[in-house]
Fold this sequence. Notes:
Helix 6 packs across helix 8 and helix 10 (about 405-415) crosses helix 11. The protein is built from 17 helices and 37 strands. The termini are far apart. It folds into five domains: about 5-175 and about 240-265, Rossmann fold; about 275-380, Translation factors (Elongation Factor Tu (Ef-tu), domain 3, Beta Barrel), CATH 2.40.30.10; about 390-460, Alpha-Beta Plaits, CATH 3.30.70; about 465-580, Ribosomal Protein S5, domain 2 (2-Layer Sandwich); about 585-675, Alpha-Beta Plaits (2-Layer Sandwich), CATH 3.30.70. The longest helix has 18 residues, at about 560-580.
Amino acid sequence: MKDIKNIALVGASGAGKTSLAEQMFFNSKATSRVGKIEDGNTIMDFSSEEIEKGISMVLGVGNLKWKNMKVNVLDTPGSADFTSEEISASIAVENLMYVVNATAGFEVTLESSIENLNKYNMAKSIIVNRMDNEGADFFKTLESIRENSNLNPVPIFIPIGSEHRFEGIVDIIKGKAVIKGNNTAIPADLTEIVEETRMSLMEAVAESDDELLEKYFEAGELTNDELSRGIKKAIVKGTLIPAFACSAITNTGVNELLNAIVEYLPSPAEKNELKIYKNGKEEVIQNSEDGELLAYVFKSFSDPNVGDIAYVRVFSGSIKSGMDVYIPEKDSKDKVGNIAFVLGKNRKDTEEINAGDIGALVKIKVARSFNTIVPVNSRISFGEIELPTPVFWQTIKAVNQSDEDKIGAAITKLLDEDPTMKLEMNTETNENVLAGIGEQQILLLKKKLKSRYKIDAEMQMPSIPYKETIKGKADVSYKHKKQSGGRGQYGEVYFRVNSKPRGEGFEFINSIVGGVIPTKFIPAIEKGLNEIMKKGIVSGNPIVDISVDCYYGSFHDVDSSEMAFKIAASQALKKAFQVANPILLEPIHDLQITVPVEYMGDVMGDISTRRGKILGMEQKGNKQILNAQMPLAELFNYYPNLKSLTQGRGKFTQKFSFYEKVPDEIAAKVIAEANSEE
């Protein structure tokens, strides 16, 4: 465990995470050439969708050797639509390395990444990449991170030059400069800033360790050795966030970054406490090489040529080929087949993966994303991972009728890869609805259906599951009488129909006395009511929150039947709706909207135009949190609008709250539309 480093490259979209990983693999001789995103030949972005778009959409996994240390590198997409990939990566590593664009500073996607991963107890560091780009400014970039987030990065490296003059770095800890791979004296014009940065670093390190703090007060400084040891402790504790400068494209500072990763960042042996659940109770355990197997599938995907593949992080013990294991989340046994170490799409077979390491299980049957792997008799598991709530919805169906039987199974496999997406059958609207956290994410699923399973799918905005009810009451009767030779049909009912409080559903009251309707026909009356309530009367939507009291009626000895009373009941309810002031109800959702203060006015105005209500607000840092309610009809297209209003910085969570009356003008349109489709 002490000879492994696990890092996840996270953060801003377009900051150069994939290019940096590519250069790391090449410098360490894990690969023989440097791939380029524009050429579509990088190790990490190998899917046809990523090559076509030129951006990362899926978590990439690779490994390299540097100074006798194995470094597992996880490369994540920067787009907020693929947040689940960042969450997956953060579970598998000890180190989150935020890659930042030196020319763009604190970008929207960096902000999103920091906020999403804030709650994870990983060691964090900052890599200021693209120092060769026009407008690159290392210190300004770090300052923008301090101003806009809760991170306080302290430079370990500072750049020598910038833009086209960026030629190397100064290593603050070792007190040396490295230009084009060669150690050299620190340039005279940087002496002052190097001294200032070193003092800041010493203070940050001393504050994280009482012994070093005492030494610092006595001597006024720390030795290089004390600084180096102190940095490791401070990074593990989370009291120090080191910052590095580099350019992946010109390969400047990348070797020095790799040196720093193996020298200063924690290994699985140094950051080995893990929160788990044992028999449902939370515990903190120490990972160990000789402990009982505890592994976690942080990402799974389906390869049509190979089968189901699960990326796995082993925390304790080891996982071996041929082993029988237990998956607590599925309450099911599984068998480990082939095992491999991974470099992009390339796999190198192995017999086992030991504690602290990352690899892949090939053709695994049961285990999927966010599943624990333990011995058969164990009852240990990870807790449930908190995932973002959906903010974007689309219906999905096969274009070709011949694919209808296949599309469900294909989507299920794809959803295993990204648990932030859900597929739900809306029984009221009879639609399959995909719910996710962004348009790109859902469009990617559509492309995967085509490229992997040869299924064309079409998507559109879901229908709103309206409901019908009444505001008033009615006292009605209906006689169903039909004579057409032979046995006739006869059934008569008298109903008192009333509205009920919202959410109380349907109540049938049998007040028949004296046998005016025989008892054997009462269930048929209730059945007739239930059937018409499912279909609806005014708009084709289900009826809710009414009571029907059947208090009188009549029957015929020969002609009465269950069918006659079913028809009488449904027609009587239709008659009641004509006089009891029918209304439409629509689902209202609770929203918690987080926006920077400067966009508050625009966002509040937009909520009002969407028939929303603001319930309250609170300040959190430089963000405002709005609690609001909004009809689902307006919520379906809210996410793109909120992004547009806030330059991508607004976000929200939502959940269903209650049903409320649709305004008359909108209800009239919905009813007219429903009737025109009949």
